[in-house]
Amino acid sequence: MPSNEGWLDRFVDGLPSNPLFMFLARRVLVPYWAWRTPVTPQPGGPRVSIQPGDNVQCMMNLIMPLKDKSPIGRANAAMAISQYKDEIYAGLDNVGTVHFARFVIVDDNICMFSVYDGDFTNYIRDFITTIGSVFNAVVELVEEGEAVIPCEQNVEAFIEWVHARDMYQVPDLATDILKDQKGDKAGSSPDDLRKLPREVVLQLRANPNVSLGGGYRAYPGYSAAQVRQKFGVGW
């Protein structure tokens, strides 16, 4: 199909595959953008919504950098979780709004990924009130964890501590990043979509760890057995 693009358009379109341009973009252009238009890291957790359906199966992606970044430090984190696994799971059961939770070690971080219903603040408050004394063994291995230990006696501070380490969830609609940058202030100027690629780059520079969107959330309409029966697949 013939293209109506001129030579300048073709040149610009080819820049992302140009090694020299990409080198200059990483070392010069992006730092210059960041200097001219400072970006504030966005808060973690799900986006505030008054829609009840948006407060079901919310995600928490808690990233906690370990103090000891050696294999020994990671082993200590793994042992802290395994030692108190039963108590942690019992605490999650008692919260009553948690669908799913797991601990993983990624690089030099111990992470807790969970899916819960309702308000983030209530979720963390119920969780730490139930098993705060147990969770201290994990938090004491984490950078700046000593500021909130004992967790069960510093509930409000612990909620803020967790919120600061929860991943920023990039909006499902990429254009909402522009609203995040402006704080969605009343009377703010209309969104300039030409700035979107730059704002995405700057946001990912300020928030190196992000969750891409709110994730897929649903309750299966059919059981595995029903699906296999429809496809004629045996067990």
Brief characterization of the structure:
By secondary structure, the protein is an alpha+beta fold. Helix content is 45%, strand content 13%.
Anisotropy-based shape: globular
User: What is the second-level CATH architecture of the largest domain?
Assistant: 2-Layer Sandwich
**Main sheet record:** 3 strands, antiparallel
- What gap, in angstroms, lies between the N and C termini? 49 Å
For the record, the CATH class of the largest domain is Alpha Beta
Helices and strands, in order, run as HHEHHEEHHEHHEH
Radius of gyration: 22 Å
Name the helicity range.
40-55%
Report the β-strand fraction as a percent range: 5-15%
Q: Write down the CATH topology of the largest domain.
A: Alpha-Beta Plaits
Counting H and I runs of at least 4 residues, what is the number of helices? 9
Q: Specify the structural class.
A: alpha+beta
For the record, the count of structural domains works out to: 2
Task: Compute the average pLDDT.
Answer: 81
Main features:
235 residues, alpha+beta, Alpha-Beta Plaits, 3-stranded antiparallel beta sheet, two-stranded parallel ribbon, 9 helices, 13% strand, globular
